[in-house]
What does this fold into?
Amino acid sequence: MNWGKSIVVAFVLFAGLIITMVVISMKHDVNLVDPNYYEEELAYQDQIDRIQNYQDLALKPEIVKTTDQIILIFPSELADLMNSGEIHFFRPSDHAVDQRMKIKLDNENKQAFSISGFGRGLWKTKLRWTAGDKEYFSEQRIVL
It folds into this structure.
């Protein structure tokens, strides 16, 4: 084979490689942090205020991981004032398995969530609630 044919074969192989890489990258699913990411960024000052309200609290809610449960514990002073709330179990690697649940505390100001519905790996708990006229937000990492 002469040099001309070798160059053409090399070019065709290179073009095939590039086309294959483009096809593979187009099939790859790209997960944003949140489907409404851009809208949430525009209203981020409200989120900063929620985080500051949480940091100003003397007594804060706790999220405790046991062998088979994740337990949300509210201090009684906060639980008495709470109007509504939500906990978001966020999986950074796959938003399709995220779970959002309303906060429904028992008479001991606790709520338990079974770990059996969660996959192993890194999760973030995003806790958001209102008490009176203030909103609060906290985020904590959990590795299952």
